[in-house]
Amino acid sequence: MLEQSKSHLSFFSSSIFIAENDKALKSFGLTELLYFKNIDSFETEFSAKQHLGLIILDLPAQKQDETLAFLRQSETFWLSTIFVCQASSLSTHLANGIWSEQSKSLAEFSETRKKQLAVNSTLVETAMMKLLSYLWVFKGATLLPAKSPQMQSLYWYPLLQAWGIKAEDSINWLASMVRRNWLEVDSLVNRVRYCQSCHSGHLNYVDTCPSCQSIDIGLKASLHCFNCGHVAAEHEFKQQIGLGCPNCSKLLRHIGVDYDRPIENQQCNSCFNLFVDSDVVADCMDCGEKNDVNNLIVQSVNSYKLSANGRNLAKFGEKFNSFMFDQAENINFTQFCWLLQWQNNLALRHKQEHSVVYITMENVEQFIQDKGEKVAFSLFDELEQRIAKSIRLTDICCVQEEHSLLLFLPLTPLAQLPKIYQKLNEIELLQSDKNIALSIKALALPDKSMSDDVNMWLFEALEQARSIEF
Asked: What is the pTM of this model?
């Protein structure tokens, strides 16, 4: 550490400048900032957990990228406002911009938003909440992908990588975030094709013979004699006085009258087949799989921004629920109770049979902590898909509590519910992992004991109902 000032910018609890020299520090008029020559001296000084409102970097490109990655990985500094003096390959993805006269007001705004977060930034553990908090605190921020030809995925998200989401898992992880309405696509960056065997993007597209699949093919100029129908290479028709058919010896004077050129202008040097269009095969450079181009895995690479639901989750701390359904009509709990009472009275009058199903996922937080968000989201996705296959447009859904779902299934007696149970029981992760459990209870309507206080009746009935656990 070359120089250290005891004063701070008034609107930050602590602000620092990391650079190999202090020229930029003085030129920007930022002499109030604590100055460090490199990241090592910074780590020594700030070994204890301490919030940093503003960090400015002026380092060589490679060192700057390494420092940015270190700061975003840190459980203490991941949400710090970071500006750079010069752009580097990762500064667009991990920094909040290049320092300018407007940067101070942007940093002040971000610092205000950090104080409004529903959770303490030093207590956020999941990549999901880190991303939502980051995109909300830094207004207008987007999650951007970066190119990396060395990686099988070809693209990666540096911010997610810093928070433990691997490049090969990021696209599916983000798709789950979008499906849960926490993120929305900002723009399409690229569309990438991957090997169906190893999911690598390192593909070599090769033209092959449609007959024998040999890659030894080439252009072949040929002629077609109208007199006898003979087709052969053009050089076989050439004679001293012009063109003549080597098969019937007829002189070929006029194209379109005596002869023409076949549209088959390619020939295989292995089987000598003539053809118009070659087949295209995508050879995987990593696993050697020969992929039909129509069977390649196509994935869109997008940039993402915060959705309205994501803003609420970050700002107000609304708990997320594992269940998200589009197939059934979603209503709130008060409406659900009113519906049950109405349908119960109709069922008593018209002798109809309905079912109420209560589904709960247990130990979800512990499961996410032990297995990670990727595995957890995969389980949620599979669970929703299996339930969705059993839900009709006439069924009513109510997301009641965290990771709990109420379903009203009209004209569905309890005897028909085992089909739903069987589909849920086939989820492999529920069978193999004891840390996660799915509990299901079912009630039959009509029920003459239902009181005007449907809320009380419902939960008393559910407490007495036998639970089916997976």
From this structure: 0.65
